[in-house]
Design goal:
9% of the residues lie in helices and 64% in strands. It is mainly β. The protein has one domain: Porin (Beta Barrel), CATH 2.40.160. The protein starts with a helix and ends with a strand.
Length: 185
């Protein structure tokens, strides 16, 4: 199953890269998450867990409002994340609106800040049976550099919120830092 997903993602990337005119204004990003923190509140007790490193794929579409500001939206798919010490895994699929503000710190660098807010859908590993779960708020802030007309690198801090429980749903928050490389069409 994992091999099929990887082949599907790379096939999708190659297909979208071949359709440049259709995707003008779009960016495809591959991200690496070196680890994160998972927290939940059960019966008034805050529990925290570490999360293993993972990968993500995102697609964003931006429209320029002026020379400094772009707005648009995006979709990210996080490959399954495993909680350290547990076999249980999860992933989030956030849909979000975003703003990109150019902030040149020097004449040689095309730097920018991003802000994102939206909704994300929580999915659980099949090893976790009997849980009722749902999505929630997604938000993030980031910093990046446009290397040239086609490539970009960025770092982002984001929080994915969801709900998880047997009978009553409890908050389920996953915060992480993601490092990404993007290709702009």
């Amino acid at each position: 199953m994992k091999k099929t997903r990887i082949i599907l993602v790379f096939t999708l990337l190659l297909l979208t890269m071949s359709c440049r005119l259709v995707w003008a204004g779009a960016t495809v990003k591959l991200g690496f998450e070196p680890g994160g923190d998972l927290s939940t509140n059960i019966s008034g007790y805050m529990l925290g867990y570490g999360v293993n490193s993972g990968l993500s794929v995102a697609g964003e579409y931006l429209v320029a409002l002026n020379d400094k500001v772009e707005v648009g939206g995006g979709l990210e798919y996080q490959l399954k994340q495993n909680v350290r010490g547990l076999e249980a895994g999860f992933s989030f699929i956030p849909f979000y609106g975003m703003a990109k503000v150019k902030a040149p710190f020097s004449t040689d660098l095309n730097t920018y800040f991003t802000g994102k807010i939206g909704y994300n859908y929580l999915t659980l590993d099949e090893k976790v049976a009997g849980f009722d779960y749902g999505g929630g708020l997604f938000y993030g802030i980031g910093f990046g550099i446009d290397l040239n007309d086609r490539f970009t690198v960025d770092a982002e801090y984001s929080v994915n919120r969801g709900e998880l429980g047997y009978i009553l749903k409890q908050p389920f928050d996953y915060s992480k830092i993601r490092f990404g490389v993007g290709y702009k069409f």
